[in-house]
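The data layer described in this paper is built around a simple, fixed record for each protein. We quote a single record here, exactly as it is kept in our systems:
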Amino acid sequence: MTSQVSSPAEQADEAVVGEQRKPEGTKDVRRLDRVIIRFAGDSGDGMQLTGDRFTSETASFGNDLSTLPNFPAEIRAPAGTLPGVSSFQLHFADHDILTPGDAPNVLVAMNPAALKANIGDLPRGAEIIVNTDEFTKRAMQKVGYDSSPLDDGSLDGYSLHPVPLTTLTVEALKEFDLTRKEAERSKNMFALGLLSWMYHRPTEGTERFLKSKFAKKPDIAAANIAAFRAGWNFGETTEDFAVSYEIAPATTAFPVGTYRNISGNLALSYGLVAASQQADLPLFLGSYPITPASDILHELSKHKNFGVRTFQAEDEIAGIGAALGAAFGGSLAVTTTSGPGVALKSETIGLAVSLELPLLVIDIQRGGPSTGLPTKTEQADLLQAMFGRNGEAPVPIIAPCTPADCFDAALEAARIALAYRTPVMLLSDGYLANGSEPWRIPELDQLPDLTVQFAQGPNHTLEDGTEVFWPYKRDPQTLARPWAIPGTPGLEHRIGGIEKEDGTGNISYAPANHDFMVRTRQAKIDGIEVPDLEVDDPHEAKTLVLGWGSTYGPITAAVRRLRNAGESIAQAHLRHLNPFPRNLGVVLGSYEKVVIPEMNLGQLATLVRAKYLVDAHSYNQVNGMPFKAEQLAKALKEAIDA
């Protein structure tokens, strides 16, 4: 979905309910400037699909938005249990927003487990729509309800809407030749129709999607569309929903352009394709499926028309081995994984450091250690990316800060890899990978030129006047060695993991040569040109909050709250983590206090303290969920006042 919006205006992340008005008809329409909705149910109830469709229609309407899918690691967790609850949260607004929101205004609970797992996140007065058909005695006992929360007064502080979603869906589909079980599967579409009515979402896109998704099963497509329309009509006619809501398009939130809704993994995929086109190189992905990185493999496999080749390997080591071979052969080579896969790939990353070939290693971080929390987010691979190889094997590291920024981060990673002939680590995470937001589609002339010059002939003259090719003779500016494609006449050269002799690339065990090569490889990484760190400090604050990666949204939302409350605080966010921006030391030294929030136990803080001798205060969370803006605002206020 794409939409057109106009010029930007920075607004607070907080929002206020606007006035009520009454159009023609019997129901009131209340204007809001934002709302947070959470769909929750069993992992088989289609909550992710429901959330995705509501998000797509919201994007096409022109709202700013941010999403937070949250689901179990199991393919099909036990039905009706708390561990089996899957949810999708969407925050959308008529202004610029930064996070999926701290607390839902609306909860759609498909069963007792969904209600119990999520009720603690709701503020008093929030709306709760429950599928009463699932509140059987057995289902409630399974999650620890001794009595029905719908009847015992425990939900009196909320606006409760009991709706027999299953019964209404089955009734709406009685004309179709479906079993009751088949009809019940469409109850998520009934719920989507009801919420689409409540918030005036477009419906045409969802109907087109259903026709396309079930093109080979037109009866199923028609049934789902009927359930969707029935949900809309139920909202229109029932007396229980006397008010619907309008959230106007975010016409002042963005620069003029064409926008679409995009997730982090999809943006990364598009960025990799764009990088290969800008470099005029074929794109090769060697990968082994792993949550939450597998979507990149799935997406890139669709783009053979752009010269993309995808290889699903038998394991992580084979995936990166194939990618490194493709780099040797002249491709823009990529391998995708998560933290456990990076550990397995570490030896081959070290080989790429020794061979000095461009290679993109995409790490979509998740909770660890070991298998850990496959579907939950974390930022705990930074030190692994920095040091997780034997010997001195430095690797550049960059990290996107939002789902849409994953596109630009992929281009930047490719620039560094190609220009400096080095593997590059890109650290995204589950929050960015699965979350989505509006993305302004760039013009082609805005993309960087990544053209590469391959070695074409001899580059060194011996004392006797003979012209030869030296594979490790370096560019004086970048210290990059030449990239020689196998089969090019006269460019035959030795390759392998044993230490190379400077210039010739011959095997060398000479102590002085090894010392020189180690220092040269480090100097190459240290010399990478990266932009200076930009600091947002309108009031000459004494406290700086420094972040990296996906903490950008919560940090920025928290900073806005504090500034709106009259506090003075500065903010800076790192994209380049190795090498750091050259002005980072000066920036850190300009503030009395530095606070570093991370979804780990303080990995960036450790690096900053070691390199710059700054007494940075670390604020950490490792619960598998992103920071909440209010939580960070409170912590930062305490740091300011300390």
